[in-house]
Amino acid sequence: GVLLYNHLQQKVRNAEALAQKYKQQQEALSAQLQVVYEHRSRLERSLQKERGEHKKTKEDFLVYKLEAQEALNKEKQDSMNRYGALSSQHKILKNQHDDVKKQLLELQLQHNSLKLEHRKSLESHSQKLTQLQQDRDSEVTNLQDTVYKLREESKLLRKAHQEVHSQLLSAQAQMEEFRQLKEALQKMPGLR
Fold it and tell me: Can you tell me the distance from the alpha carbon of 135 to that of 129, in angstroms, rounded to the nearest whole number?
């Protein structure tokens, strides 16, 4: 009986421990379930918010689409008007181009005539230039001869100047000697 009683008590303790374990697991699962419920609630609120924003975005897109369509129509009309203006301007410019083409042909004829005159004038100037160069070369030769002669004269003048300078220095030295001699003679008592 004691063994049976102990055995039953052991089973009761095991059952209580198991019950306690299951209770803890249940509490953990309840807590996890609560977290899941809160997360689901947040997701539902976020989904509602996203749906609201999506609806607003869709409405804004429709408004933008209408405005873009109106702007496109207006741009298309402006483009047509610009095309008409450019077409008229193109016709005017084409007529001007034809006029300029005619003027170009006339100017080309004048240019050819002037080119011929220029060639004749160039030949005449070339002949004059050749004559002038020959005259200049002759004059340069004469000037070079004159410069050579002047250089030779300058050398002779420099040489003469050096000789005169040497003579002047010699004369100054003699004058100094005479002065010293004169002073020496004046100092001699017999000559006073």
Answer: 10
